[in-house]
Every structure is written in C-alpha cells, then in structure tokens.
Write a structure and sequence with these properties.
The protein has 229 residues and is of the alpha/beta class. It has 2 domains: 87 residues, no CATH class; 120 residues, Trna Endonuclease, Chain: A, domain 1, CATH 3.40.1350.10. It is built from 7 helices and 5 strands, in the order H-H-H-H-E-E-E-H-E-H-E-H. The chain has a 5-stranded mixed beta sheet, sandwiched between helices. Helix 1 packs antiparallel against helix 2 and helix 5 packs parallel to helix 6.
C-alpha cells in the first residue's frame, strides 16, 4: 500500500526518486525568482519603475504552486498493490445487500419507500448482487437496480398502488423511455401491488418490459414462482 506522503515511498527504492523530485521542485522556484530578478534589472536600466515587491511575490507564489502540485501528485504504487478505489481498472465497492427476512419481504405493511426496499430484499433473496434502491427525485424510473447471478442488469420500477389504482400506459411509456436507453437494463420490470390496464400491458409486451401485478408479486414473495428475470 502506498504511504500517505504522496510520492514518498517506504523501502530502499523510494529515497532516490523522492530526493530527485525535491531538487527539481526547488530548482523551479529558483528559476522563477531568477527570471523575476532579471526582469526587474532590465526594467530599471530602461528607466522604468516596476513594482518590485509584487513581482517577486508572484514569482514566489508560482514556485510554491508548483511545489504544492508536486506534493499532492499520487505516487507510483508498489508492485502488486491494487489500484485505489474508484481508480481506472478497479470498480467501486459493491453496496451492502439489503436485509432478507420475513419483515423485510412484507410488502403489504409498508409505504411506497418501504415497498422499494421490500422489492430490493426479494432480489437479494433470489441471488442478485449489487442491489441498490435508487428511487427518489431524478431516478428516471429506476427504483431498484440489481445484477442477477447470471450477470444480467435488472432495472425495476415499483408502483405501490391501492387495489383500485391500476398502472396505466403513461406510466409504462415513461419507464420504457429510460429503462433501456438510459439505465442500460438487460431486464426491465414494473412491479405493482395492484394491476395493469390493458393498454399498459400491451405497451409492455411490445417493448419487452416484464409486468408483475399484485398476484404475481405475492407468488414471487412466497417463492411459489421464480423471479421475473
């Protein structure tokens, strides 16, 4: 693991490169100051009266900025060390999986936000990893995102509706406009506690969106049927 001092590295191989960098940084500061002094002398010989102190201050600041940039630059990793989290070549750590249990799976006793977590728990129970509850403002229809055991990306929209409030075609059309193009779903699913109108079901079938109504949700929760992916 790289030491916290940027380019400074522990071990016999790190002292020489670090010392060379220090010499280069100091040399850059000296060059800046020397150039500023030459400018001042030339201006004085020409009869001008340049503001000497501000010029020297600017030169010193430029050298200091270069030195600060050097000290903040990440140093090379020791052989065999993994790249830092978020760095190219290393994915972000997977989010923790939702809790799976009778209470977590009980979608009938929750509000709309809790319903999203209940669906996420179902995904985790059935072997998905990287399960995330993404619902909220600006989610563009993706309430739950997960990756199946086979590596397929599942994007789920959750509709916690009452028995008489069915999911309409406009809901499906909004989700259909983002689930594949924006969220790059391999499988797009709409899960509801109620049902779907006929136009909504037709649109979903045409677009390849899986519809899970209240009865199918109960069967999925009770493990009487397989997951919708």
């Amino acid at each position: 693991m790289a030491a916290s001092g940027g380019r400074r590295r522990r071990g016999s191989g790190g002292a020489a490169p670090a010392g060379r960098d220090v010499v280069l940084a100091v040399g850059l500061v000296v060059v800046c100051l020397g150039g500023a002094a030459l400018f001042v002398r030339t201006a004085a010989e020409a009869g001008g009266g340049p503001p000497v102190v501000p010029i020297l201050a600017v030169a010193a600041l430029a050298g200091g900025a270069a030195l600060a940039r050097w000290s903040a630059a990440p140093g090379p990793r020791p052989p065999g060390a993994p790249p830092a989290a978020g760095a190219p070549g290393r994915p972000d750590p997977a989010p923790p999986l939702p809790e799976v249990g009778p209470e977590a799976l009980d979608h009938e006793a929750v509000d709309p936000d809790g319903f999203e977590h209940a669906v996420a728990a179902l995904c985790a129970r059935d072997g998905c990893h990287r399960v995330e509850v993404a619902g909220g403002a600006g989610d563009l229809g993706a309430d739950v995102v997960a990756v199946t055991p086979e590596g397929r990306r599942v994007v789920i929209q959750c509709k916690h509706y009452g028995e008489g409030h069915r999911v309409g075609s406009q809901d499906l059309q909004r989700f259909g406009g983002t689930c594949f193009a924006v969220h790059e779903a391999d499988v797009a699913v709409v899960v509801t506690t109620s049902g779907f109108t006929a136009p909504a079901a037709e649109y979903a079938a045409a677009c390849g969106i899986v519809c899970v109504d209240g009865d199918a949700l109960a069967a999925w929760t009770g493990a009487r049927t397989g997951p919708p992916w």
